[in-house]
Amino acid sequence: MSPQGVSDCAPTDVPGRLGVSTTMKRKPFHRLVEEALAALPAKFRARIQNVAIVVEDYPAEQSARRGLAQKPPKSGASAKKPPVSDASEENREGLLMGEFIGTPATEKSVWDTAAGPDRIVLYQKNIEAACRTEGEIREEVRLTVLHELGHYFGMTEDQLEDV
Questions:
Q1: Under DSSP, is residue 136 helix (H, G, I), strand (E, B) or coil?
Q2: Which of 8, 14, 133, 134 has CA atoms 20 to 30 A from the CA of 32?
Q3: What whole-number distance in Å separates Cα of residue 114 and Cα of residue 110?
Q4: Nearest 5 degrees, angle CA 91-CA 57-CA 96?
Q5: Whole-prediction pTM value?
Q6: Which residues, including other chains, have CB under 8 Å from residue 134's CB and lie 6 or more apart?
Q7: Rounded (to 5) percent helix, strand, coil in the chain
Q8: Phi, psi dihedrals of residue 131, rounded to the nearest 5°
């Protein structure tokens, strides 16, 4: 909800889904990401370094299937290691909610050359498709941010299941 008590969301019918999902404008979605980060304990926030948190509509391969254009990767992006496997961040409908792209902090060395920031990408349209209310979107954003930060800190899928 916005400060005036007016919802930042609008219900929409999503093909292939039972019921109605909710869509949100990008700015309020970004605020949810900021809220999730602000809620982290200070000792964890202080250890997050050189990570860009990005919101995109869909993963590149899903956009290609939908015929949507994606921005080309930035120069130097191919020099990075492939993303950490993130299969469990797919929800019950098989939609990828987010992913960590980069090298986990536990695998970094002072001898590594900088290739730009690591990235955590949240896929807004997939999160919206899995949620029916603004409250569900807020919770899914929180869980996805925590999950991807877990990968940043070097946790595996099995370890994240226990968290």
A1: helix
A2: 14
A3: 10
A4: 20
A5: 0.73
A6: 1, 7, 8, 9, 22, 24
A7: 40, 15, 45
A8: -120, 145
Q: How far apart are CA 109 and CA 146, in angstroms?
A: 24
CA dist., res. 68 & res. 22, Å (int): 21
73: which 2 tokens? 């990767």
pLDDT by position in tens, the chain (length 163): 444 443 455 544 444 344 456 889 999 999 999 999 999 999 999 999 999 999 999 998 876 666 655 444 443 433 334 444 343 345 556 889 999 999 999 998 888 777 789 999 999 999 999 999 999 999 999 999 999 999 999 999 888 887 7
Please name the residue ranges forming H helices in 24-73: 26-38, 42-45, 60-66
User: What is the residue type of 113?
Assistant: T
> 9-161 — its CATH code?
3.30.2010.20
Q: Are 158 and 45 in contact (CB under 8 A)?
A: no
Burial 32-48 (b: 16+ CB within 10 A, else e): bbeebbeeeeeeeeeeb
Q: For 10, how many CA atoms within 13 A lie in the half-sphere containing its CB?
A: 3
